[in-house]
Amino acid sequence: MNIVFKYRMLSDESDNFVRDFEVYPDMTLAEFHRFLLRALGYDDCMVSIFKSDAEWRPVEEFSEIDMGEDMPGVPRCMENVSLMEVNNNFHDRLIYTFDMLNNRSFYLELIDMQRPAEDLEYPRVAFEHAAVPDQYDPDATEESGSIFEEMMSDYNEFDGDDGYDDEY
Asked: Which residues constitute the domain of residue 42?
């Protein structure tokens, strides 16, 4: 494959959690799911992946179970659908629901499409920040420093009173 999709994963349970994944677009949603489980260190679990619109509203569901895709409203089987079929434009989004009973999900956005580096193996975790939310207990999620604060730490000289009046 001569292109790699780069997805950014976020969680609504931890403002600090960020993961970037680089994968081939011909990977099936089922293969992507198994890769995400390994990358997150989660136990095998039943998931649904949803294609979503720009406001994170689910548009189409993909399930691990083949329920017969001939019927309207029935989710398509992840094993039969590639990432490229679901996402092929920058900022296309997926919702990875790993805990159906408690409605817990990760949010993935396609942030880049690039040529694969010859010295790297794919799929891979390209970037990670903060601990992964606990798979079973959302209250056990450890908070660490804000990624924004960490990235902006070089600009501390702007902190404090600048001597300017902000009133108009």
From this structure: 4-154
The percent of residues in the chain predicted with pLDDT above 90, rounded, is 73
Instruction: Tally the domains of the chain.
Output: 1
Q: In angstroms, rounded to a whole number, what is the distance separating the alpha carbons of residues 11 and 128? A: 13
Pairing between β-strand 4-11 and β-strand 104-114 as defined by DSSP bridges: antiparallel
- The rounded distance, in Å, linking the Cα atoms of 91 and 159 is 33
Q: Report yes or no on 67 lying in a domain.
A: yes
In this prediction the pTM is 0.82
Residue at 102 is within a domain: yes
Measured between its terminal Cα atoms, the distance across the chain in Å is 56
| 128 in Cβ contact with 76 (< 8 Å) | no
Q: Identify the CATH number of the domain in which residue 107 sits.
A: 3.10.290.30
In a domain, 162, yes or no: no
Q: Is 163 a member of any domain? A: no
At 94-104, the pLDDT tens digits run: 999 999 999 99
